[in-house]
UniProtKB/TrEMBL annotation:
Domain of life: Bacteria
Region (Disordered): 1-26, 52-76
Name of the protein in its database record: Uncharacterized protein
Skewed-composition ranges (Basic and acidic residues): 1-11
């Protein structure tokens, strides 16, 4: 599905430039507004020779119906539906935060009292529609919660994480939110480090080399082994 740009330039801050519509009902709605736009354009005398809108997202011949359906800022549109479904599926304790992001907040206050292991699990969970209009939010939201946490807190959360949490933890620790930290802030105790490397070795081998290079041992571990 292609990008939708409003004439006034307004955009949802977390809307991806491309996304997929796979639900049969929603795909049917898109086909209907696309055909309506073509019919209205033809009736108005527009030259449709060479028009490729059979392959585009339905916005080449915009109508009020296509604007309502495809505009990322439309509360009745398909992007809003995708974001609402994603927010409703957020872990308990994070749904209000997810709903604020889905509504267009750029930087809502993070929730208090939610363990970081929950954010790891949120990042690592398998989504049934991974490339829908909420995929950018699904990437950003848990990373925002994790990026500001101290390494010691993140390492403890690794120890509390289940398999989905470890999946998210490996993604986080191998990503730029962690790998660009100062070396002093990349020191991870042995237990958490071993859990991350073991999971990467078995399930995310592409991240293993980065983890081995960027996860530094905590000073207290070196002292304990001496």
């Amino acid at each position: 599905m292609g990008d939708f740009s409003r004439p006034d330039g307004a955009r949802h801050p977390h809307h991806p430039r491309s996304y997929e519509i796979t639900a049969p009902g929603e795909a049917g709605e898109v086909r209907a507004v696309r055909e309506l736009g073509r019919r209205l354009a033809a009736a108005a005398g527009d030259d449709l020779f060479g028009c490729s809108c059979g392959d585009d997202d339905g916005t080449r011949h915009a109508t009020p119906e296509s604007n309502r359906l495809l505009d990322p800022l439309s509360p009745d549109g398909i992007p809003a539906r995708h974001r609402a479904r994603w927010a409703a599926a957020a872990p308990l304790g994070l749904r209000e935060y997810a709903a604020a992001l889905a509504a267009g907040a750029e930087d809502p206050a993070p929730p208090r009292g939610v363990p970081l292991s929950v954010a790891f699990g949120w990042l690592g969970a398998v989504r049934p529609q991974p490339r829908d209009a909420a995929w950018l939010l699904a990437e950003r939201a848990p990373l925002r919660l994790l990026a500001g946490a101290a390494t010691a807190e993140l390492a403890w959360a690794v120890r509390e994480s289940d398999r989905a949490g470890l999946e998210g933890a490996v993604r986080f620790f191998a990503g730029e939110e962690f790998t660009t930290r100062h070396p002093k802030r990349r020191r991870v105790p042995d237990t958490a480090r071993d859990l991350l490397l073991r999971h990467a070795r078995s399930h995310r081998p592409g991240d293993l080399a980065v983890l081995e290079r960027r996860l530094l041992r905590a000073p207290e571990d070196r002292i304990r082994r001496s």
